[in-house]
Design a protein that fits this description.
Elements: E1 5-9, H1 16-26, E2 29-34, H2 52-57, E3 60-61, H3 74-90, E4 94-99, H4 102-110, H5 120-133, H6 135-145, H7 147-150, H8 158-171, H9 175-179, H10 181-190, E5 197-203, H11 207-223, H12 226-235, H13 251-258, H14 267-287, E6 293-296, H15 302-313
Parallel strand pairs: 1-4, 1-5, 2-3, 2-4, 5-6
Helix pairs in contact: 1-15, 3-4, 3-10, 5-6, 5-8, 6-8, 11-14, 12-13
Length: about 325
């Protein structure tokens, strides 16, 4: 049976956009972005968002769908992706999922992880903090990291505030992320969702090749006005560094430099190092996905290799 949709994954700067545009020139596709940073409006340079010409050349989805003040979870992505795959297929086109947010791919393929179990050490630390600051201050902290959960809790609801902060500190994900699991599973079951896609993974054989690409990309972003973009976001007055949008690689380092956490002269090195660390995590995620078809992004004609692999995957 042929794949009902195609996924192009890879670490940052591995050439995913170039591959996607080549695919779009050969096949009748619509692109679904699998990127937790591209969802945000006003964050264009630092996310390497597709250019206006690229966006105009082929329909794109899940780009510019959130204000940077808002969160967007893996659960929301899975629901949106299932809906879009169905809609694109109904239009007689091939859904092409492209990006580097591996948690989104994993959630789409395997479902979401279970709620973290109670962590006595984390709970004790939270109780100690609450004794010093008060529960309204802890509620304010929860509002920064999990506004959806904080919005339904009273500022003195110590038990629920503690649990929500515990989940976030233990897992790195807000409680609302896990609460949407049931809805995700229902969506998946309703769509008859089983793995019916082909996953092509762009991975470097020589890590230094990717490191050089990352450095070149960061320099290009700085030259294109990345710091002016971050300054404009800061000037809004309602954003802060604890938001998921401002924790994106590059934006976090720029924000810290503007806050004087370290000299501006160190920003380039800090940003490149953080991006390399992100790429390392992305590659680790990919290597845990045995169903992937690997294409060496630093090999001979990687785009041609991608197109050849897609030809095999969509054969009846």
């Amino acid at each position: 049976m042929s794949a009902q949709y195609i996924c192009i994954a890879g670490p940052t700067a591995s050439g995913k956009t170039a591959a996607a545009m080549a695919i779009a020139r050969q096949y009748d596709v619509e692109i679904i972005s699998v990127d937790s940073a591209l969802v945000y409006r006003g964050m264009d340079i630092g996310t390497a968002k597709p250019t206006p010409d690229e966006l105009a050349a082929v329909p794109h989805h899940l780009i510019d769908i959130r204000d940077p003040l808002q969160a967007y979870s893996a659960a929301e992505f899975v629901a949106d992706a299932h809906r879009l795959i169905g809609e694109i297929t109904a239009r007689g086109k091939l859904p092409l999922l492209v990006g580097g947010t591996m948690l989104y791919f994993k959630a789409l393929f395997d479902g979401l992880d279970d709620m973290p179990k109670a962590d006595p050490a984390a709970r004790a630390a939270l109780a100690e903090e609450a004794a010093a600051k008060g529960w309204p201050a802890m509620h304010a902290e929860l509002a920064r990291v999990d506004p959806a959960t904080a919005g339904r809790l009273a500022p003195n609801d110590s038990q629920r505030i503690s649990r929500a902060l515990e989940v976030f500190r233990v897992s790195g994900q807000p409680l609302s992320f896990f609460h949407q699991q049931g809805a995700i599973k229902k969506v998946a079951e309703g769509a008859g969702a089983t793995w019916s896609g082909g996953l092509i993974s762009l991975e470097p054989e020589d890590r230094s090749w990717l490191h050089e690409r990352i450095a070149q990309r960061f320099d290009a972003m700085l030259a294109a006005g990345f710091m002016e973009e971050v300054k404009a976001l800061r000037a809004r007055g309602d954003l802060h560094p604890d938001l998921p949008s401002m924790r994106c690689v590059g934006y976090r380092q720029a924000w810290e430099a503007l806050d004087g956490v370290y000299p501006m002269s160190e920003l380039r090195d800090k940003g490149i190092f953080a991006t390399r660390q992100l790429a390392k995590r992305q590659i680790t995620w990919l290597r845990s996905m045995p169903q992937r078809h690997v294409v060496a992004c630093d090999g001979d004609e990687p785009v041609a290799q991608v197109l050849h692999t897609i030809g095999r995957l969509i054969q009846p």
